[in-house]
């Protein structure tokens, strides 16, 4: 009890961001002093439920000692399964509530909002039925009969001593009138959990008698030194102009000028009375990421946020963002000796070399006495030069599924944020993690209805915490923008008039209707929107859009014509199957060396190599000299749609929703190559996009079946309809980007009529199907979605009831926040002809030039850490052919190979993994399918013919 209380006090004083402290303090009479005392006291009493017969009976030797002092109890065997009715967290909640009522005159209706922090300290606040059941079994709290009073006296004395020792006895009368908001109850619960976990760590607080030689104060001090948690970021609002801020944080060239969107975002952040939600809609290449980080610094300084979480749609985009986040952190203001905790949050983060390098420098967590610390010398500093004097650390304690998000600066997948809206154990820790940060949500247009159900609920909680949020998107449908604003501001009326500003006096609806773009929308919790309409950067691109028949010979003929003088073409298909079919046909025409494939069905290392190759060959002109001088075609799936800074002379794309097509166009003439694009082949100096994957000759365009399966017919038809006025070169008006982006998106996603009259019936039928699908998504998503923020004073009882349990950041948990069928992930290794197993033979050396190809993997021994990590880096997600019943069959077949030294607990990298054995030709059979893998084309799957 003493240790937990001491840790809670240190967390409050040295680790907790000012924003979280303020959220708790502002609802209490004496503000900060009350808040600190409350946190310390709750941490001290959180285990009072162990002073009950139901808990104390578990170890008979200790139970006998207690009986010797008059605390009689039945044995654990005699109590039987009834003991489960009184877990010590729930028992503690009940005991503390009774003590507040009977000794301090609290009304029973007011106790639960405080005591739930005790009841929920093992991850799930008790449910009403559990509380009622325990009240019906009081013998589990105190042995009936003569001993009842003795038990009660001991429990009351412990609580009396804690109240006196931690200074709350005189405060309890004032706290009786307080109504704690539910977000405050969550934060209190989370702080009790963290305090308990640290105080229960035997490396920090050795068990008796190992730590008996130290006083209580010495023991706590040694533990805190050993833990060595980096404190929160204490942002200082940057002075000077937006230009000066960007030059300092992003190393702009001397003559470079920031974009109008960036300047307007900084101005709007400084103009807002209270940091809140800012939505930045701007074209690709306008520097939205840098704008978000600049705004985050201003918001953090004004709100007291102690870090940043940057949420991205995929692991690949998270990996790409992580080094950019580190670079920004290295340029932040901070004195010498400053330490900032950083983390990469997704399921394969340990395989990221930037993050692995930080983890390798982390030190073991253990108690360090004063003499020990002096003998050990100063802590290791960062190897690289840090311009601001701060050290970035991947702290050893801030790892793992439950604690990783508590690091100050985190880049990760959007799942990590959506989990804050998923009813699961220890959800309070996720809320504590985001409550003290600025949250940045990238690629907001990429999230479907299912994910949006979770995102909107999370935004409502973030607004209740006062968490600043920056949302980035190329553009959003007006209806989606309003939903985001309303969720965060907790407003049901989307027509509230915005504050008048220098830049705009129109309502958000009027602004959207006018097609204003770029567009910044900001709102404080409970407030009305502010609008800014900055101009786009000076550069504008004219894109001619043409239809192309969906026939491979027609595509090859057209590219033969377009590439007569050379050039680089990007062909984006909507399914991996179409990618591979197209690549085969184009290789027959243009040769294997002139066609590159990129899609999602590559092992992790090959996928990363594909991305780096694309950047090396097709990246910005100032960063690469390796761009092909002849003809080259990249055939890719949606992996080329976002985040990669790649630039092509011509784009061919399957029909897709118009906002995604515009994203794809962002890879077309992305950079200037000579005056008036004069360094491009003459035929390709005008940006053109050929749209295929649809039968344009039909009376109503008929998208290919794979595209319909991915996007739905309604979105594709509306996309085709709004593109019609721009199709086919001379007959259609070219697209003007960015000017046409918002009008196209608003038309495609609006409710107004689009397309010719004879499309009307088909659009109506497709819309009805779309609405049924959307309603089904929303209904299914709501099953495990967290409830809304309740009224102040209402206890969190049942907060995560009927949830997913302990499966938040697991494949099962991720499937709950994304509307995707379960997919199967395997680790691919090669089996040689002699039966031996090795890592894949084509792998390139790592960053330290260590060979990764063909490493021996003994089946009767645990692989070396490097070999195991290399094998684990060849994770491969099987396509959706292996879902449902086929998945069950595949798992059964894969489990026939079980290597205890790999898949048991001996190898952290391979524990629990399913192993896919490929022969020396890269082939195998699985669940009625033939699999073939090559580093050139990735995984190809064909169904075996039935006899």
User: What structural class is derived from the secondary structure elements?
Assistant: alpha/beta
What is the C-alpha radius of gyration, as a whole number of Å? 30 Å
Tally of individual helices: 36
Biggest β-sheet strands, sense, barrel: 9 strands, mixed
As laid out across the biggest beta sheet, the strand order is 4-3-5-2-6-7-1-8-9
Report strand %: 5-15%
Question: What is the number of E strands?
Answer: 25
- Shape annotation: globular
What's the rounded overall pLDDT mean? 90
Question: What is the straight-line distance between the termini?
Answer: 70 Å
Percent helix among the residues? Answer: 40-55%
In short:
With 947 residues, this protein is an alpha/beta fold.
Describe the structure.
The chain is α/β, with parallel strands linked by helices. The protein is 41% helix and 12% strand. It has a nine-stranded mixed sheet, sandwiched between helices. Helix 1 runs antiparallel to helix 3 (32-45), helix 8 runs parallel beside helix 12 (182-199) and helix 29 (705-711) packs across helix 30. 49% of the residues are buried. The model is unreliable at 369-389, 492-506 and 508-514 (pLDDT under 50).
